[in-house]
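User: My advisor, Dr. K., asked me to get a structural model of this assembly before our group meeting. I'm new to this, so sorry if the format is off. These are the inputs:
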Amino acid sequence: MSRQAPLSEFIARCDPSELPPEGAYVPRSPDFASRLAIELEPSSKSRVLLFGQTGVGKSTELARMGRLLQERYLVIQPPVDKVLDLQEVGWHEFLIYSALWAEEHLKVNWLWSSLPESSYLLAVIPRMRDELSEALGTKEPSGQPPSGPPPPTALQRFRNEPRHARPLIARGPAQFWDLASSLLNSIAEAANKPAVLIWDGLERMPLDSARNLFLDARNSASELPCRAVITAPLGLSFENYFGDIEERFRIIERLRALPCDPGTAGHDFLLSLAEARGASQVFSRELIEEAIRLSSGLPRQFLQLLSNAATQALVDGLERVQPESFARAVQRVTERWQYQLEPNDYEALELNDTERPSHIRARLLRIGALVEHDLPMGGLRIVVNPLVETLLQRRRQEAEHARA
Amino acid sequence: MPGPELQSGWLDDVAAVAISGSSPITLAVCQDLHGVQQAREWLQSAIPSLTKAHVEEVPASSLRVRLQAPPSPNGRTIWCVYDAAEGSSEELQARWQEFNLLRDQLTGTLRSHEPRSSLVFLTTVTRMPEISRHAPDLLAVAQVITVSEEPFVVDPRDTLMVDSFRQASSELEARYGLSTSELARRLLDREPTGVPEPDLSRWRSLAGALREVLE
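Assistant: The format is fine. Below is the predicted structure of the whole assembly, which you can bring to the meeting.
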């Protein structure tokens, strides 16, 4: 085994853009995924609107919740944020895409083979899919397929051209809604489980688009045919119209950055996260503590710091992560903000949170320059990300230097 | 007043991060298009000498198509998108919005290759503000390296960095009872240093990075 093998192994276990590998999931205290699962139980009208900034751990908790529910529910989690244009999207597109996605994926995976041959659903589901595809103008041509690659499926056609579908949907939105709902209901019936929709990634929507979706078109959300957990941009919760949105969702949940002070549950969580990935083999306890402090309680940022430091140590020819590799990793993880922050962002970051214009606060939260924490006695506290704080310090120094 | 400008690596670092980094996607931010050309040539020659891998140049307009093609049969591949910062603002917007949406497909595909492939976007400092507006989610999962033309040096104004590097080099000085300048003299005069290899190499790179602080 090479002397640098522990570093390489750690890097492989520590990719911050991936869901935790098997066995590396660390539950939060209190267990957030279980709470979400319990909140969805009461009725098929249960809707959870989940707020939380990028990197706070929403996808990990939603994936965990999905696993907790999958025995009793048909969990449908289509990658809506990667396919639909979040700048301009409506509930109809979400629902249609989800129904087509469920039909194609569940058919391939298990659903069709488990149905008895006599089941009427074997005919009904494809017919509904075709009806929906035809209305969208995405049905594959009938007749003998020509030689060559197979024609794209209804889902692929919709995925490739979601904008093409918008004017068609606008001609008869109720018809599309009913078709997509019926298709989803039939799939759930075939699975013999109630469906749960998980729409993750919507926190990346620009605020104006989110307002259109969650406020102007909020009635549709309550008409969804099954239980649903939907993520939303954090900035929405600071708008004065937020009360109207709250009314439409049964439950509002927030996942905020963890407290990082030693002795807190958040600190222990991050320590366990590092341990689950094997950090103690290549990091000193002091460096792990420093990474916790600089993580601002965002698990993704914590893992980014650790994995970048391990990469730097590997490049430097070291066996373990040393303080200089860690310092360079801190700089590297900070670097993206120097391109994302504009001059007026820097000015806003220097202000107290109450003085920041809400649209700038929303943007700064979205790019992680500001971080939202729970206060121990309830309420929230918004702080500058410690990595961004190093940029602010540099900027102050440079301003002083220029003045001198 | 604009923000500060950090520079976290030079060309060797880009090659090393592309090979060993935890994220399979790297954004190497060069000073200008001339720097992009330099980085492109550097990667072509440096990567095969560092590891068993080859560089495949992929035009930005072909990335989606390349993504769907089978992996290269010639072993580990580093895709280099060399023209990602070229074109009008409209072209840049369309291209980087598409890359932003493709981010999971990109990381998934690169990881699925055996051995793992990686992707380096070569961009420029002047286009980065636009790119970061159009691809914020890609930036959040990629490794961003602003490429300096010189090997890494600690900025004397960066107190955090200076402290970390100084502390590390002081520890080595204490461990071997030798000052950094004495070590440099012995190395120059080809005298034995008494420092075993892993520590000697670490010490040399610490001293190199601190060159502007020690001057």
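One thing worth pointing out at the meeting: Chain A touches chain B through 57 residues (CB under 8 Å).

User: Perfect, thanks a lot.
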